[in-house]
Amino acid sequence: MANTYDVIVLGLGAAGSSSLYHLSKSGKKVCGIDQYSPPHNLGSSHGQSRITRQAYHENPMYVPFIKRAYELWDELAMASGRNLFKRTGGIMLGTANSGVILGAERSAKTHHIPYEYLNSKEIHNRFPVFKTPEDTVGILETNAGILFPEECITANLELAEQNGATIKLEEKIISIDHQPGSIAITTSKGHYTTEKLIVAAGAWTPELMAELELPLTVERQVLFWFLPKSPGLKNLDYNSLPVYIWEYTAGKAFYGFPNLGEGLKIAHHHAGEITSPGTISKLVGDDEVVAMEHVLRNFLEIEPVFNYATTCMYTNTPDNDFIIDYHPFNKNIIIASPCSGHGFKFASVNGKILSDMALGQEPELDISAFRISRFQSAI
Ligand SMILES: Cc1cc2nc3c(=O)[nH]c(=O)nc-3n(C[C@H](O)[C@H](O)[C@H](O)COP(=O)(O)OP(=O)(O)OC[C@H]3O[C@@H](n4cnc5c(N)ncnc54)[C@H](O)[C@@H]3O)c2cc1C
Question: What is the rounded average pLDDT of the residues 337-351?
Fold first, then answer.
């Protein structure tokens, strides 16, 4: 029964590769299938860097997840010998009443995360590149930093394979037929049966799970790299610049990274058009570059020189919290949509949780906030 498995993981991006790694330690017969060859640049997990942080402005409920995620990233780095994380510190910027500031401080206080509260002058003295208006304050967190997504996914897949997992690449899952006791999968290359299935298909989840009418929307995002021209600011590396999220007006934010060699990476958070993996426009227009140059000139003391840009996809829920749950009609299928634009940092712990669920174990953290049933429209 070569094509029969205990668990199949559909999609080997951030969530799927981590699930496969954790499953591979169980001794079960496990297989991961991806339509491309992760890490690739066609989904949601590319672009060299992802911010990770603990003073979680979105909601303090994420802090236990992120603390465990840090431990598991460290374990993965040790086991793989790969460099997955750089601690750079991170600063949330906004007015005193902005969501990022109030939220980050709330999470830091609730979960005893060390932080500094800086006023505009202190921010500018510490990080002269920021042009902070007088009413801007900052929450600076030393634990924040950069995860290297391509390295993280490679580490998961290498270790999973070493542990005996089967990995099938360039193989697209076309259909999933499920009854209470069996799951049959047809791909572009063959047929499989499995007892359990983890669906970690990122932006392809709405089409693969169309029967559930999940309220997911796929959003186009553009990542830009600019080389700073101004003399003296050329080396804005992680020794002089932390990762940052700047809520410059209520509910609107951009974020950025220090120079990792190709310039300052910067992007808007949630300002893209609704799209789908099949229709996304991958071309970044001159108007988009000019608009981002404008943001840089307004908020950073640099004369930006455009280097390059790429597109990526957020898969959003209406409340921007994740979906991690059993299929409503078949508990042998587990559905993971841990995105909404902030999921990468949790991939290590989400993979562990998804693996536990597929192995019939109680997940180690409370995932009730991520249930599908919270959406009225979902079945
Ligand atoms: C521009 C951008 C910036 C971001 N910044 C941050 C950040 O700073 N910090 C943070 O924590 N998060 C961030 N995120 C969010 C984070 O990157 C995503 O939440 C995460 O990478 C999503 O992982 P995933 O496994 O769900 O999807 P993916 O990594 O896209 O994986 C899905 C996989 O499923 C495969 N697949 C789909 N359908 C099929 C099929 N039919 N058959 C076979 N394979 C299939 C795909 O090929 C793909 O490899 C960002 C996201 C974007 C787009």
Answer: 97
Closest protein CA for atom 26 of ligand 1:
202
Indicate whether 309 pLDDT > 70: yes
Query: Tell me: the pLDDT tens digits for 94-116?
Result: 999 999 999 999 999 999 999 99
If DSSP states are collapsed to H, E and C, what string results for 29-83? CEEEECCCCCCCCCCCCCCCCEEECCCCCCCHHHHHHHHHHHHHHHHHHHHHCCC
Query: Whole-angstrom Cα distance, residue 322 to residue 319?
Result: 9
pLDDT, position 300: 94
Q: Which amino acid, 354?
A: L
Q: Which of 88, 150, 167, 204 to mutate to test the pocket of ligand 1 (most atoms within 8 A of CB)?
A: 204
Which atom of ligand 1 lies nearest, measured to the CA of 15?
25
Say which CATH topology domain 4-46+149-214+319-374 has.
Answer: FAD/NAD(P)-binding domain (3.50.50)
Identify the pLDDT of residue 377.
57
d(CA 73, CA 296): 32
| Nearest-angstrom CA–CA distance, 83 and 38 | 18
pLDDT for 374 equals 96
Q: What is the residue extent of each domain of the chain?
A: 4-46+149-214+319-374, 90-146+217-316
Task: Kindly report the CATH number that applies to the domain delimited by 90-146+217-316.
Answer: 3.30.9.10
Spacing, Cα 45 to ligand 1 middle (Å): 4
Flag whether pLDDT at 180 surpasses 90.
no
- Report the pLDDT averaged over residues 7-14: 98
| Ligand 1 pocket, Cβ-based, cut-off 6 angstroms | 10-16, 33-36, 38, 43-45, 47, 50-51, 172-173, 200-202, 204, 208, 221, 223, 267, 312-314, 338-339, 341-345
Most informative mutation of 220, 224, 321, 342 for ligand 1 (most atoms within 8 A of CB): 342
Q: Indicate the pTM of the whole model.
A: 0.98
User: Which pLDDT does position 253 carry in this prediction?
Assistant: 97
Rounded mean pLDDT, 288-306? 94
CA nearest 39: which of 47, 30, 51? 47
CA of 95 to the centre of ligand 1 (A): 31
